[in-house]
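Model: You mentioned two targets. I'll fold them one after the other.
Researcher: Yes, keep them separate.
Model: Target one:
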Amino acid sequence: MTSRPFLAVVHYDGARFVGWQRQPQGRTVQAEVEAVLERLAGCKTTATGAGRTDTGVHALGQGVGFTLPERWAGNVPGSRRALNALLPRDIWVERVHAMQPGFHARRSATARRYRYVIGTDESCRSPFRRPYEWALGSGRPLDLGVLSRAAEALQGDHEFRGLAAAAGGDGAAGAAKPDYRCRVALAEWAPRADGTGVTFTIEADRFLHRMVRFLVGAMVDIALGRRPPSDFPRLLTAGDNQAASPPAPPQGLYLVAVRYPPHLYAGADS
């Protein structure tokens, strides 16, 4: 039976998962998706994520690649409906695309975008917000100018040895020698439209393990006056993460978009 590759754009609430990647213990997004794909394909089917999000991290645009029998290529909207009918309520498929042969959800990606959300008002401690942002609260004013100046230093190519847990992140090609270099195309802080806090948006060709959380943790420490602004350039050139600030908590982080070359898409949106 012939099959073809597909790409699903997936949202999930990471609060009740131990991450994207299948684990020996604990509930994972990958395992939940693969269980549904097995029902649709009639055989075990691997789901490959564009980014390996950690415990508690959310997604608004995770790229998930998989194969299905060729018959589904003529019913892409039906595949989306079937996925959403069978997936648990904390996972939702926004779109499905039929893709060209050779497509790979991780290796074919040219860029990924993450957003980090921080609450700086009193109500950020609400149980309806706390699982989805870093609840700093109103007692800790953040200097947006300091944050923005730090973010400007991230543009371009850097080796993020000093601001990540390890090499071999969501865009790694599996090289034997660890590769810490990432090319950052966008890094900016902005106030939330409702005045309840700030957001950090970053887009790069690849990310290392916990890189965004280490970046946010360091920038927030600087904005709160816990460490001088001059520390940030030094962290960007450090050979290890021994001087880094603690990483920001996972619940404020969202994978919001993954970009692929247009020629890899075989059909229209579902």
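Model: Target two:
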Amino acid sequence: MPALPDQPVIRRIVHVDMDAFYASVEQRDNPDLREKPVAVGGSRARGVVAAASYEARQFGVRSAMASVTAIRKCPDLIFVKPRFDVYKDVSTEIRAVFARYTPLIEPLSLDEAYLDVTDHLNGMASATEVARRIKTDIQEATGLTASAGVSYNKFLAKLASDYRKPDGLFVIKPAAGPRFVETLLVGQFHGVGRVTAQKMNELGIVTGLDLRQQSAAFLQRHFGKVGQHYYHIARGIDNRPVNPDRIRKSVGSESTFEHDLSAYDDLLAELQPLIDDVWEYCLSKQIRGRTVTLKVKFADFRQITRSRTLPVTVDSRVLLAQVIGELLHGIMPASLGIRLLGVSLSSLNEAGNKAGGQLSLFGG
């Protein structure tokens, strides 16, 4: 059996997750939407739900669900187009609240973050009190509710924040960590996706207790290097620090079309707003990249990517568009109609640093 990693410091970690963030912002800003089933996203045949209000979730509507499926589950569902600029502004307000309590903030997305308050209790009695104050401050600043989880590591804090949503606050103390994990289904573990959970189930691993009963060698044999991580989290162990300088690996944007497209000019036209999205983000964050990637999904859902890494950073929208156009040309004529295109830029670095490297960013 491998030695378990040392954990000399009992950290105090808070995970804050906004409740149905996009949908809640829309309900806040439009009183006619309150207490009604709302989906943020496109209602067209190939649209996808980006977020669902809790009223919609009662009917089984979930994020990433096809819009046609969502409507079938909830015929009265109200679709609202996303307003990402507004969500980003609200996210900035939320992060300003976090900064009142600790500089150790690791945002995961616009609506959730880890905070390490081990050395930043600011005179408060416990991390639980810090979490309670943060929830109150967020509601006063934005009119929105958040759920918070408090524990001694990131894995358990994330589980705790999900435990009593919405507007919840749950604490998992060190003595209770392993026991809490063993009662959960493995599909509830953050970082264990649907496919991995299914594979675990096929191996007879259904709960955290089942997972804990497996050897590290068994888990590594079936799941590779990440098997070691599963071995530890089944025991409530996660020594990852809160990292306020998470490295963003790529910037991307994609779009699904209402009808399949096959003509080069039509596809190139659809790529332009995606190129705009990526380039505007690069400008706003003062970052550049060297690897340009085109993502293509065909009518039969087969997906391919085509990439090109340049010897210098992409320093203009013109160059980004030129490379994307060439990558698109390389797959033409398409054997089938195309239902989705995506554009991304990776190998990121600061705008002023032409030698490469990566920039530390909020996001991931």
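Researcher: Noted. Anything on target two?
Model: Residues 178-233 form a domain with the DNA polymerase; domain 1 fold (CATH 1.10.150.20).
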